Structure formats: C-alpha cells, structure tokens
Amino acid sequence: MNELQLKVLELLKEDARRDAELIATMLDVPAEDVKQAITDLEKDHIIVKYATVVNWSKVDDEKVTALIEVQITPERGRGFEGIAERIYLYPEVKSVYLMSGAYDLLVEVEGKNLKEVASFVSNKLSPIDAVLSTKTFFILKKYKQDGIIFEEHEGDHRLMVSP
Amino acid sequence: MIKDEQKESFASGQRQSMADYLSPLVRGIKPSGIRRFFDLVSSRKDVITLGVGEPDFVTPWHVREAAVYSLETGKTQYTSNAGMPELRGAIGQYLNDQFAVEYNPADEIVVTVGGSEAIDLALRALIAPGDEIMIPEPCYISYSPITALSGGKPVGIETYARDGFKLKADSLQAAITPRSKVLILCYPSNPTGGIMTYEDWLPIAKVVEENDLIVISDEIYAELTYGTRHVSFAAMPGMKDRTILVSGFSKAFAMTGWRMGYACGHSDLIAAMLKIHQYTVMCAPIMAQYAALEALQHGLEEKDRMVEAYNQRRRLVVKGLCDIGLTCHEPQGAFYAFPSVVSTGLSSERFAQRLLDEANVAAVPGDVFGLGGEGHLRCSYATSVTNLTEALDRIGQFVYKLKQEG
User: Among partner residues A18, A28, A158, which is closest to B52 by beta-carbon distance?
Assistant: First the structure.
C-alpha cells in the first residue's frame, strides 16, 4: 500500500461519493494517479464496497439487531474457519468476528422482529454441531457506528461571520 | 435608565446624549465593518458562510474532558497571575520544540485571555501618547483600534497581492518617522493567508534593528502553514529581545471559545504586561488553562490531522476560485483565501453584498481589513468540503451571471 492509496482511502472513508477529480485537487496530485489508485484498491479488494451508513431507527419498518456470543469447538485442521463460514453465509448475519476471551465468535444478526432473530438462533445457529452455547443480546439503540455519530449533537454553533 | 438629574442636564444643554459622557478616544473608534456585515448575514437563512474566522472543528474531546475533570476535582480558584506554572512550562517547551524559540517560563511567559488580550497588553505596555505603531495591512481588525485606544497613532503599511501580501523592507522603511516605535506583524496572515519565510524576514529584521523598533508578532496562525514550516520572527538572529511573541490555542487546537492565549518576551516587557494583566483580569480562567495544558501534552497529533484537512480544503478553494476567474495568490498559511474580485468590476463591498443577496454565500469584503484590502474577498475555508464545493458552485454561477450582465 503506498502513501497515495492510504490518503485516498481516508478521504473515501469520510465520504464515498467524492470523485477522483475532487480527491486529486484536495491532495494536489494528478487525477489520473487517483483514478489508478482507486482502481488498484478495488482490484485488490481493499475497497470492498461503497455502502451507505443508514440510521434505521428513523425508518418506519424498523429492524431488530442482536449481537450473539457463540462458543464453538474448533475443527481439527481448519480451526474456526469452517464454522464461521457456515454462519456468515446466512444472509441475516450482518457481521462475524473471531474474538479473544470467553467466547469465540461474535455474530451480528438482523431480523424484521424479535421473533425472527430468536428463530434464527434456535433453528439455525444453535443446532450446528460445533456450537456449544450462544448468548443473545438485542441492540436497543445505536449511538455511533464506524466512527459516525448518529444523532449529531455538535452542530455548527459558530457565528456566521467573525474576524 | 436615565436618571432625572441627567435628564435635567440634557435639558440645560450640557449633554445632548449619553454618548457625550464617553471618552473621545472611544468615540473616535469606528464600528468594525465586519460587524455590519455580520448583521446583514445573520438575518438570512440557507446561507453558506465562508465568513468565519475560526476552525470548524469542535475542540477535541480529550481537551474538553480535561476541563470537565478539572471542574470535578474542584479546580475553581485563581491561578498565579501569569498562569499556572505547569502550563507556562508546557508553552515554553512547545515553542522551543516547534519554532526553536526559547523562553523562561518563570518570567518570560504570560498566559492571557486569548491572543487578543496579549495584543492589548503589549500595546498598552509600550505606547506613550503619540507613538507611531506600524501595521502592515490588510490585517486583522483589532490592531488599529487598540493602538488608538492606547493613545498611539496607527500607521498602515500597504502590502500587495503581487508580493503574496508579504511585508517588504522598502515599504516598512518608507513608513518610518522619528515617532515610529512598534511594528505589529501578523504572519501567517488573517485575512490574506500570506506568510513570511526566513529570507523574507531577514531584510525586515535589518530595518527593525536599524530603527530600534519593538515588534509585536501575532503568530496565532503559526501552526497553519502548508508546505513550509512557520518561522517565528522571534527566532530571527538578534530579534528575540525586540519581539513580543503573541500566540494562543484558538486556531491550532480549535479552542477559540476558551479564550486562551499567551505572550512571550523579554522579562522587563512581560513584567510590565503582567502588571496590567493582574489589575484587569487577574488571571486566565483555570479550567481553560487545564484544557490548554492537555492540548499541549496530548493534542499535537490531532492538531496535525486538522492542519492536513485545512490543506486539502485550501487546494480545493484556490483551484475553484481560479477556475471561476477570481485570481487568487496561493495562500500558504492560516485558513483564508483572498481572491481578487476586480475582474468583475465590482467593489469588494458590492461584490460581497450581491454574492450574499443573489447566491446566498457569505464572505467578508476585503476593504474591512484596511489598506490593500479593497478589490479582494476573504474566503475562509474552515468549513466542510461539502459546503466548500457548494459555495464554489454558487460563486461560479454568480460570477458567470455578472459576466452576462457586463
């Protein structure tokens, strides 16, 4: 990863809609270089996707999200990989992390309602042979995600004009 | 409320209005042009403002938290007049590390209520009635009024876009009279974004030396230079004793509202300033001093991130203005671009007024900053990239419309 790529990543992380021209001006480099950097980052799967951070609590059909701590018996030769894959392939699973500490996988599951998430745990997750135990925690409110504060309380309080 | 006796005295013709009680020095101060423009802008909605002379970042949380903690632990007292010794020590260390100027925290540093107070103290400590104070312009709006309030005579020295608004030794020399005493410097410059390098300073230092001048160097934007490191005038050979270095936390650490500044200089000068300071404000607020200490101890990386963000926006604005046809020297410091609007055929004031009315963008007309400001517009890029992009769009359309008219 070169320095330009890193700077491009930082600027895109702030706002993915910034185009190469704008980024090139901000970094004082040729637009062609920025285009190339973005192409390379996409090709190398470093930029995985340009997604939108949504505050779903403001949307009427509210979703239910739970974090599930999962204890697993690792498989000989493959460790946690195989089980993790079996879990993350479910579309209702939004993220999966291998963790240090008292449990092994932290699984984020999204459903239309509480019942749907509960059903996922009892019908799909728990029955997997390697899964020893699960603990489900429902998220009540998201304050901040990916460094973005959802309810911005620090608006611009400056005077419109000052010396 | 006007008392009855005063009403009688008005009636008897002794006093026409309450203002007649005021000191002629105060009455002589013109209201600031920026204030008038502020009133104009504030009455409007949906304005994108490039008129703000302060960072758009909120003070980093660890700094705010340090102030909260100082309150929780009962730090609500006066501090030493000159400021907490730990803070003065940290300021001394910081100035040495960043700008290679050495001050003894014991008697060469005073912590003030913003850089503004430091300027006021310095001028009051130095000026005897009739002394001439030389001020390169366009410049920050307070030097001239404070000079006048202190009984001095402000002498403007025009600087020019073609020189990047640098102060030139021959202009300085031409302004010198037998009453010349103080030179006020403000580089990096508000409003022009101009800076002075080591080579730029050399001939100035020579004139200062030859004419036995004292310099008040307002280096509040010292951290905000792009592509080159700020050179403090106090760091120039032989200039330290002649210079009162004024700076503060507002711009570098996004701490405008805390009102934390400082002045450094020869112990005789600082002692005199301290005398005024102790009788007027006693000391800077203690919780703000704790915040400032935290900023110096743990805030330098965050500061660098902010400077990098300003630099990115600076490039955006300078390119945008030039593309529009508002020629713009490259501002290498502070967070202002100072493009010329002369090509539109409008005066600064008229341009700013119409830009506000017709394009909903606020920027400060250059004439309020003194000599050499007419024909320019101060555009602060201390605002989000989204705002800047939209503002440039609107300015572009406005200038295009002017051309169609013209």
Answer: A158
Give the count of beta carbons closer than 10 Å to the beta carbon of residue B25. Answer: 12
Q: Which domains does chain A have, with CATH numbers?
A: 3-43 (1.10.10), 58-141 (3.30.70.920)
* CATH numeric code, B61-298: 3.40.640.10
Rounded mean pLDDT of A42-47?
97
Q: How confident is the model at residue A43 (pLDDT cuts 50, 70, 90)?
A: very high
Q: In whole angstroms, what is the distance from residue B54 CA to residue B310 CA?
A: 12
A-contacting residues in B 23-52 (Cβ below 8 Å): 32, 34, 37-38, 41-42, 47, 49, 51-52
What's the fold here for domain B21-58+302-405?
A: Aspartate Aminotransferase, domain 1 (3.90.1150)
CATH topology agreement for domains B21-58+302-405 and B61-298:
no
Give pairs for B88-93: CB < 8 Å, separation 24+: B88/B262, B90/B293, B90/B296, B90/B297, B91/B262, B91/B264, B91/B296, B92/B264, B93/B296
Cross-chain CB nearest to B52 (options A11, A18, A159): A159
Task: Give the pLDDT band (50/70/90) at residue A152.
Answer: confident
pLDDT at A146: 86
Place of tokens 């001439």: B132
Question: Exposed, middle or buried by CB within 10 Å (0-12, 13-18, 19+), for B320?
Answer: buried
* pTM for the whole structure: 0.92
Which residues from B are below 8 Å from A158, CB to CB? Answer: 52, 54, 56
**Domain-wise residue ranges, chain B:** 21-58+302-405, 61-298
Residue B261 Cα to chain centre, angstroms = 12
Q: Which of residues 144-163 of A touch B (CB under 8 A)?
A: 154, 156, 158-163
Chunked into runs of 10 residues, chain B (406 residues) has average pLDDT values of 53 76 92 86 91 96 98 97 98 98 98 98 98 98 96 98 97 98 98 98 98 98 97 98 98 97 98 98 98 98 97 98 95 98 97 97 97 98 97 98 90
| Chain B residues lying within 8 Å of A154, measured CB to CB | 58
